Amino acid sequence: MNEKGTAFLLPDNYSHLKFSVESNKASGRPSTSAGATSRKRQMIDREVESILLDGDLAFRISQHAWYYTKGDNLKRSAIPVAKYLSITYRRGENKNLVEGDSIKLFSYKNQQVVVDTRVVLVHDAHDLVVLQSESAELCDRNLFLEEVEPKKGMKSVLMSYSVIRGDASHLSFSTGTISSDISSRMRFLGSSSSYEGNTGGSCWSEDGKLIGMQVEADTTDSNGRQAFPSHQFVH
Polar residues bias: where (predicted)? Predict the structure, then answer.
């Protein structure tokens, strides 16, 4: 785990291990009035605490971990969705990307592999940018054809490049549960604490199927009230 207990960092010998993801530090939660925890809250807490991260699953989805940089030590996620296509987020520092811009993608499994891509689509409504490879394949099949529709209560794994000490990022995994059904905007929420580097991270099912991409972190519910931190994804 990282120092804050919010991200699981991939160890060197992980391919056949199972990990229980736990933290001895309390998660960030808003203040509540004194009293017993509701039965519904207790059930959610027990479910989240029992989620295991399978080493085989971490190894399989890490094969799809691509990233790019912007002249610093921080990695930004790029998710392959087809053999020659990948997606990344639109918001924040990527707001200035336009069609035709070039981005070099690096493979996590072999950082000597560099693939030239260019922006072929910018979709503001879905907060995503589509990149097309100009040479090598980014994955061995069309992952979007296998994509799983998110359902409330479904267990999931978030893979992203977590910023650990402020000036570097590392591949990390965090487990959680889909906490909402998919909306008309193709958005859904996932329950787990948020940390820097999540944006653009990929969300996967327990059997290694792509579910979506994180686009932001929410701290309010659908009515605008304070809520437990959660990830917002686009499907």
Answer: 21-36
